[in-house]
Amino acid sequence: MPTTTTTPCVRGFDRTCRPEPTCRVDTVAVSSLKLMGSTLDGEMVTTGNGKKYFMGSDNKGLTYDSAATICCKLGMKLAEFATIASWNNFLAYFKPLTFSSWDYIGQTTDNGNNTDTWCASGTLVPDGIIPADMYNISCGTKNLIVLTPGGDLNHINPQNSVHRYFCE
User: Fold this and answer.
1) Cβ 103 vs Cβ 147: under 8 Å
2) Pair type for strands 153-154 and 162-167
3) Which CATH class is domain 27-167?
4) 3-state secondary structure the chain
5) Angle formed at CA 150 by CA 59 and CA 126, multiple of 5 degrees
6) What is the pTM for the complete model shown?
7) For residue 8, what pLDDT is reported?
8) What is the dihedral of CA 137, 60, 101, 29, to 10 degrees?
9) Are 124 and 117 in contact (CB under 8 A)?
10) Are 49 and 89 in contact (CB under 8 A)?
11) How far apart are CA 97 and CA 149, in angstroms?
12) CA 33 from centroid of its chain's CA atoms
């Protein structure tokens, strides 16, 4: 009788970086954004400390990859946060706006040691952004970390819900 072996799940490999989108920058959309502060896909908004983000319009069923491609076409990427202060500033501005949508920010990879790295920049995610309970989930269940309605972070990404995204 043949023996079967199973490969154990290695923490850190169940939430890994997806390939960054490749695209051609949409110069018409970029011009519209510069002139009018908006495109058909969303608008520029400014937080309390003056940081500007492109906030994508609510969109039922929008995927992470589609949001990343829209950011790419604007010459941007999904938002990443270099400091806990930049995260707190972002959250203070956007948390009241997340009451009905699941929101995409830059993707992270689980390093397997209770830390994450931002995928696009390769920098360590500051302590305090990713909740500790995101690291104690059974292997194979983690996906993207998304901002939930109400402004919390979660690894669950309901496909048929309204989504929004933030580019920088």
Assistant:
1) yes
2) unpaired
3) alpha beta
4) CCCCCCCCCCCCCCCCCCCCCCCCCCHHHHHHHHHHCEECCEEEEECCCCCEEEEECCEECCCHHHHHHHHHHCCCCECCCCCHHHHHHHHHHHHHHCCCCEEECCCEEECCCCCEEECCCCCECCCCCCCHHHHCCCCCCCCCCEECCCCCEECCCCCCCEEEEEEC
5) 100
6) 0.81
7) 44
8) 110
9) yes
10) yes
11) 8
12) 21
Q: Can you read off the two tokens belonging to residue 126? A: 């500051």
φ/ψ (deg, to 5) at 34: -70, -40
**Looking at residue 13, what is its pLDDT?**
46
Residue 70 in this model has a pLDDT that exceeds 70: yes
116 phi and psi, to 5 degrees? Answer: -125, 160
- Is beta strand 108-110 parallel, antiparallel or unpaired with respect to 116-118? antiparallel
Other CB atoms within 10 Å distance of the CB of residue 77? 19
Q: Which residues of 109-146 are buried (b: 16+ CB within 10 A; e: fewer)?
A: bbeeeebbebbbeeeebbeebbeeebbeeeeeebebbb
Percentage with pLDDT > 90 across the chain: 32
